[in-house]
Design brief:
The complex is a heterodimer of chains A (227) and B (260). Chain A is an alpha+beta fold and 227 residues long. Chain A is built from 6 helices and 10 strands. In chain A, helix 4 packs antiparallel against helix 5. In chain A, the strands form 2 sheets. Chain A has a 5-stranded antiparallel beta sheet with strand order 8-1-2-9-10. Chain A has a 5-stranded antiparallel beta sheet with strand order 3-4-5-6-7. Chain A has a single domain, classed as Glutamine Phosphoribosylpyrophosphate, subunit 1, domain 1 (4-Layer Sandwich), CATH 3.60.20.10. Chain B has one domain: 4-Layer Sandwich (Glutamine Phosphoribosylpyrophosphate, subunit 1, domain 1), CATH 3.60.20. In chain B, strand 12 and strand 13 form a beta hairpin. In chain B, helix 5 runs antiparallel to helix 6. Classes of the chains: A alpha+beta (227), B alpha+beta (260). At the A-B interface, strand 3, helix 2 and helix 3 of A face helix 1 and helix 2 of B.
Chain lengths: 227, 260
Amino acid sequence: MSMPYYVAPEQAMKDRADFARKGISRGRALVALRFENGIVLVAENASQSLRKVSEIYDRIAFAGVGKYNEFDQLRVAGIRSAELTGYQYSRDDVDARGLANDYAQLLGNSFTHGMKPMEVEILVAEVGIDGGHDDQIFHIMYDGTVIDRPDTCALGGESDAISTRLQAGFSDGLSLGEAIKLGVSALSGSDRELSASSLEIALLERNGTRRCFRRLEPSEVDAVLQE
Amino acid sequence: MPVFTPGDDPGADFPMLLQRSGYGPVNLPPGSTIESPHATTCVAVRYDNGVVMAGDRRATSGHLISHRTMEKVVQADLHSGVAIAGAAGPAVDMIRLFQVQLEYYEKVQGSALSLEGKANQLASMVRANIPGAMQGMGVVPIFAGYDIRRSVGRLWAYDMLGGRYEERDHVATGSGSLHASTVMKVGYRSNLTRDEAVELVARSLWEAADSDSATGGPDMVRGIFPVVATIDSDGWMLVADNELADRYRTIISQVEGSTS
């Protein structure tokens, strides 16, 4: 009679983490940062139709890197959860923290119990009503770890280097143009340039209306980068 | 967090998601009827740049006026609106579900429904209320909007069973609709301007309120006026109360002294 293989839990978790990390690091990165009037999300994305950044609710945005079908499934689950809460109670009762916790449960569960861990890292951002002090950015890892990022956040391949560049250039009260340029230069590094056609940029903006999410057209991105 | 397997996924259908999440419709036991507030007259008319929608503010329970400030004409999304007559409770609920569904679809699919798609969506919600309609809780909406793809305003009328009828010029629903649509039929001509269209709907609601006890007229004492909105290529825009007050003062001055 053959005995089943024994794999130490440490080894099993490490194997899974390595697997997820490898998948995530293959993809292009994205960043989020606060600016004077909200939060801007900048993603490196060659496609103009397969989105990495999208709207979840009135003041909440979602962004994902890694395997497209997996983070898109999470995006739709987030919209569903938010809309159900908003319909059942009130639109005021939907917040990013609750969503981030739900995502953490889902990802954590899939990491420890699933056939394979999800090869994604996601971000949930919420723009505050009064001012920058209640803007929120949550970074959720493939294993369900949630990190609260006060000002900036980088996800995906080479995110450590990108994050260092982003934090070095960040200060409170950046204008939209400055924030976009910082995000783009943090993504590209010093040895290459990113054009509008390979960028996907969206905002959560304190604009006085209910829906704060807005995508920037390539022409608008071009205009900012040319400044 | 709701996650479904691929073959089992409710897609961009929010009412279906609600059902799957355990918030199904509430059905009255067969044969029972409930006396509940009813909302009355709403109209819509096409003009050269879009559509105007309008509705009175009264809700009634039998002979009792249960609300003086009900809003029966509401924005559905950027370029469309919905107006309701019938049982107020189910109608308000239907509008809320309709608004959520339009935005939900847009977010899940990444693009908004076409105007015709929205009209069909509303039809299926009216159809879902057939059991209610059989027990005196019917909802009869009007849907109107600006079709961006065709650059034209469009109108739809419905019946209680979910029948959907696109109208070319004007439409009315509710207990005062006979009087309101007569006024519009007589006053309508092609290519009305925005001002002429607002005048026409204001007058049609005046006549409806004048001859139908369940329809409320302008309340000059409390400053309550019908909800009137225009929808054109720039989207939904409410007509301000002071503009309506001026129009109704003119109408009142014309009626003063007459006895019919």
